[in-house]
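Late entry, evening session. Most of the bench is empty. Finally got around to the prediction I had been postponing all week. Sequence below, unchanged from the version circulated by S.P.
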Amino acid sequence: MNIFIVLLLALNFEGLFNKCEFDSILKLNPKTAYDSLIYLRSATLLERWDVIKPIIEKVNPDSVNPSYLPYLLQYLVNSPYDGDGTAFFNHALKIYEGTTDYIMYMLGLYYLKNNQIDSTIPLLFKLRVMNNYLFYDLARETVSRLIQYKEYDTFLSLKNKLNLHGRYFQYAYIISRKGKGMPYLPLLYNFLRRYPKSPYAQALVKDLQRFVPEFIPSLYYARRYRDVIRIYEKYRVKNDQLLILYLKSLFRSRKYKKFTKVLKKNFERIKESDDSELFLMAGIAFMRLGKPDKALSMFLQGSKSDDIKSITEFFYRLFENPKLDKKWRKTLLLYKNEFNSFYLNFYSGLYFLVKGDTINAMHFLKNALSMAEEPVERIKATYYIAKLDSSVKITDSLYLTYYNARSGAIKINKHANLLLLFNNAYDGYPLPQNAELFRWKLLLMLGGLKVVRREVRDNPRYMLIVAKMAENEGLISESIFYAVRLLPYVRDVSDSVGLPLEYLKMYFPMHYLPKIEQYSARFGFDPLLFMALTREESWFNNKAISPAGAIGLCQLMPYTAKKLAKDSIDVSTTSLFNPDVNIRLGSYYFTALMDSLGSVVLALSGYNAGPKRAKRWFKVLNNIDDLDIFIEFVPITETRGYIKRILRTRRIYGKMVEMGTMP
């Protein structure tokens, strides 16, 4: 017998589940009812509907084990099952009184999946009375299907009877009137004026039959930049806000010469604007036209609003264009007592640190510290002041920030009991009744995570209990969600005794460490670093799908996964939900980035923003020896924060392992 199979048989189902070995569980034969429950739970987490199909085809709905039923309902709603599953929902409605509203909602989704819209509509009337949130969600799904099938009369009737309101239903109303040949243009124009940034407005601009200045915002946010330019120039608009959108459209269309010409002519009209994005665009335009003096002026103008995006972009461009260096230093020193921006002072201090001018570096960093309004800002400034003056210590008690973790200031209390601390500190937040607890547990089993979030609200005891429930269901990302929300309350009760290790294990779970260690041993990377990366990418949600289409624990794009897998793995959305497959391919990718880019920071930059960008940043910033300062000058805010959080998390995982915490 294969040694791997022998080892699997030696482990019980619960032990495998706690290590998130869902795929391994599906290779075993459940012997007990509890094993079967874990088996179904694992199949649902992996969306392995092929495993559940034989079960549901054999079982009698009225005799099914109540603990199994929630997973079977998820199967009916989410799988391509084409049989009649209504008996399972009816049985659930009889035995789960506490979640009638959510089961009705799932039944509605099931009907919609099978194009039984007429069966869904009566459920809407029942849900409107029971749960307004679920009512609107199901109504939106129903209306979407009606519009898709051009059932405009049904929608118009439903809209009146159910009093459907909100942006989506207004959008559907316009589409329906247009589809029926009824007057709709006045409604369309009013919608575009009221909601220019709405994605529905972006979908409706194609129906514009007249192009006038009042529709410039909608056209701009729909990325119709040429139309914006044409309308603005045709009507010679005097409105300052529309002028700004016109300028931005010129920039987006890469008409840099015209952009700078119009900007110069109208500068008095817009110089008091707090639109830092416009000045950032102006700085980049002047840079690309080879006019560094003008670029400097625009970046400084934009930085007045303390917008970190424009300031970091400017400093990056500064390193990219050494011609600016002397002029920039002169400007900084000339006005060094007049900058009222935390970030402008902060980055000026770092700039002088890189240049070896410690006197001026200290001056700007102290200015930044005096202007810091947020705890994180104080820690940032103090951290770099401490690099220049060893007598300075970080005393702020803000836990779990990148700088505090790197400086070793985080305190961990191995023995603190979190629930006991909460019970002593939050008498005003009573524990829920058993019926509520049962409802939330069922909702988690049924997939109703958002409903639970709405009902738990800000009660710290509720959050702690539901976090544990979610972890028991294998919903690690949901447990992290509540841990993050609990942080302010945990700080309140743990500042004096230290952060409870029990809480850290929720905030920084280690369930996937054994799996990651398998591949770290093969490829030679730091398993705790890769676990920190995986946590950052997906919060350990194996079914995570990003807006860009990245899938699974390590957030792999399908084309990247196929390239990495070659012909050894059948790559699909479902296979990328499998932790073993996703971590294996993520490990390949991270190792390749480490090999090609040569450092942890660049590999992390490449993982987030792409290897080409990481190589370009290194080429520009390669003279910065200090790792922390290098990270601060990474020009994309998202990537900069991404690197910091992963390094912070790696540090904390290291502390947890030192204290004997293992999955």
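Two things to note before I forget:
The chain has 42 helices and two strands.
Residues 637-658 form the longest helix (22 residues).
Will write this up properly tomorrow.
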